């Protein structure tokens, strides 16, 4: 169920306030930045499934998405204490290069666009090297299916 009355705040008669919304976003961003741990990343919600020992790393509902959101908020001028996430991003991409899941959202192919974006953003060779290694690993994992044609 998308909406559960017990889990959501009731609407109020308070008019919209850009300042109040910006302050709320800043509080959430600051809280997220403060809870970051380079090894554990962020704590998961108790209702998250599955209960893996590894922290969630993916863009959709993991560390990559939180990092992306915080960087976007920082670029938009949200007032919170920024963190240097690049070492963590490099470690996550490195760790994901040999992920056996060969799908864009979850597996090693998802590492490649992240490496491209980091290279475009920083111009650092380590990101293009990571991309090259990732493409090589992915190419080696591919299996030819004769029925599919050349």
Structure described in brief:
The protein is mostly helical and 150 residues long. Helices cover 47% and strands 0% of the residues.
Notable traits:
150 residues; mainly alpha; 2 domains; 5 helices
Would you kindly provide a written description of the structure presented here, covering whatever features stand out?
- By secondary structure, the protein is mainly alpha-helical.
- The protein has helices at 18-35, 63-75, 86-96, 111-122, 125-141.
- The chain folds into two domains: 18-83, no CATH class; 84-145, no CATH class.
- Helix content is 47%, strand content 0%.
- Helix 4 packs antiparallel against helix 5 (125-141).
- The protein is globular.
- The model has no long low-confidence stretch (mean pLDDT 85).
Name the helicity range: 40-55%
- By secondary-structure content and strand pairing, the structural class works out as mainly alpha
- The number of domains: 2
Residue windows where pLDDT falls under 50 for at least 5 positions: none
For the biggest sheet, the summary is: none
Strand residue percentage: under 5%
* Rg of Cα set: 19 Å
**Annotation field: number of helices:** 5
Arithmetic mean of pLDDT:
85
Number of strands: 0
Spatial separation of the terminal alpha carbons:
46 Å
Name the helix and strand elements from N-terminus to C-terminus, one letter apiece.
Answer: HHHHH
- Per the principal axes of the C-alpha atoms, what is the gross shape? globular
Secondary structure elements and pairings:
Elements: H1 18-35, H2 63-75, H3 86-96, H4 111-122, H5 125-141
Helix pairs in contact: 3-4, 4-5
């Amino acid at each position: 169920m998308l909406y559960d009355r017990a889990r959501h705040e009731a609407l109020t008669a308070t008019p919209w306030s850009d300042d109040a919304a910006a302050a709320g976003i800043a509080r959430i961003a600051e809280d997220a930045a403060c809870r970051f741990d380079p090894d554990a990343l962020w704590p998961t919600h108790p209702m998250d499934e599955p209960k893996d020992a590894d922290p969630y790393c993916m863009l959709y509902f993991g560390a990559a998405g939180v990092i992306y959101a915080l960087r976007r908020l920082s670029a938009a001028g949200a007032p919170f204490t920024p963190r240097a996430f690049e070492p963590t991003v490099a470690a996550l991409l490195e760790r994901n290069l040999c992920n056996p899941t060969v799908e864009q959202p979850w597996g090693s192919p998802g590492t490649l666009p992240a490496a491209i974006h980091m290279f475009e953003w920083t111009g650092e060779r380590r990101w293009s090297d990571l991309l090259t290694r990732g493409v090589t690993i992915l190419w080696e994992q591919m299996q030819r299916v004769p029925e599919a044609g050349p």
